[in-house]
From TrEMBL:
Keyword Acyltransferase recorded: no
Superkingdom in the source lineage: Bacteria
Role noted for this protein: Catalyzes the aldol cleavage of 4-hydroxy-4-methyl-2-oxoglutarate (HMG) into 2 molecules of pyruvate. Also contains a secondary oxaloacetate (OAA) decarboxylase activity due to the common pyruvate enolate transition state formed following C-C bond cleavage in the retro-aldol and decarboxylation reactions.
Cofactor(s) of this protein: a divalent metal cation; Mg(2+)
GO molecular function: 4-hydroxy-4-methyl-2-oxoglutarate aldolase activity; metal ion binding; oxaloacetate decarboxylase activity
EC number per UniProt: 4.1.1.112, 4.1.3.17
Binding site for Mg(2+): 114
Protein name: Putative 4-hydroxy-4-methyl-2-oxoglutarate aldolase
Catalytic activity, reaction form: 4-hydroxy-4-methyl-2-oxoglutarate = 2 pyruvate; oxaloacetate + H(+) = pyruvate + CO2
Gene field: galC
Organism the protein comes from: Microbacterium azadirachtae
Entry keywords, A to Z: Lyase, Magnesium, Metal-binding
Subunit structure: Homotrimer.
Length: 225
């Protein structure tokens, strides 16, 4: 991968990345590195961790995704700007081709189809719509050039972590720092959970009482509640 500071995702523990999850990694990053909430898993339980290969496609045209299959390799995630158009850019056939190349998954601002088959294959896809509407094959698109997905820039080699909570795009040169911060955050939350299970209130755990008390409805003179 040619992205600045890019590293092989194999150097990271994919299971650990997925265990930490998109939310913890995003919060630990201190960055606005989340994708819009419109990006949702095509099937329940889908999860990805891998390097981003950005692809730009024309609305309703999936030729660029076919070129993306050639450009991507083991551990990569195709991250596609399809303009948010509700077309079926990706389905079972392309997922089988992707898995044969070791491609980890797909994130697309656009539609996918064959969701039952994607689940059977275990191919993780995240999209902004599910659509059976067909595509044309005319514009070859761009591969490896940074794209912007609803305000979020994605570079080649960035680390993608996606699960049912959302999609985090971690800048390639900042992954080590984010991982260290996420591990510390997870350990801290484990300690908090133990205190909560013992009956402590979140108001006290997080010192929220200092922020003031709520206005409460006064009981009427008859003692009604």
């Amino acid at each position: 991968m040619s992205g600045a500071g890019a590293r092989e995702v194999a150097e990271y523990d994919v299971a650990e990345l997925l265990r930490l999850g998109s939310a913890t990694l995003y919060e630990a990053s201190g960055l606005d590195c989340f994708l819009d909430a419109a990006f949702r898993p095509a099937w329940d339980g889908a999860a990805i961790a891998g390097r981003a290969v950005p692809v730009s496609a024309q609305a309703g045209d999936n030729l660029a995704l076919h070129h993306g299959l050639e450009a991507a390799g083991p551990g990569d995630v195709l991250v596609v700007d399809g303009g948010g158009a509700p077309f079926g850019y990706w389905g079972e056939v392309m997922a089988v081709a992707a898995q044969a190349r070791g491609i980890a998954g797909l994130v697309i601002d656009g539609g996918v189809r064959d969701t039952a088959q994607l689940q059977e294959l275990g191919f993780a896809a995240f999209s902004t719509s599910i659509s059976i509407r067909g595509t044309i094959k005319q514009w070859p698109g761009t591969i490896g050039i940074p794209i912007t997905l609803r305000g979020r820039v994605v570079h080649e080699g960035d680390l993608v972590v996606a699960d049912r909570d959302g999609v985090a795009i971690l800048p390639s040169g900042d992954v080590d720092r984010i991982l260290d911060a996420a591990r510390a955050r997870a350990a801290k939350e484990d300690a908090y959970l133990a205190r909560l299970r013992a009956g402590e209130l979140t108001l006290d755990l997080y010192d929220f009482r200092r922020l003031g008390d709520p206005i409460r409805r006064a009981a009427d003179t008859n003692g009604a509640r």
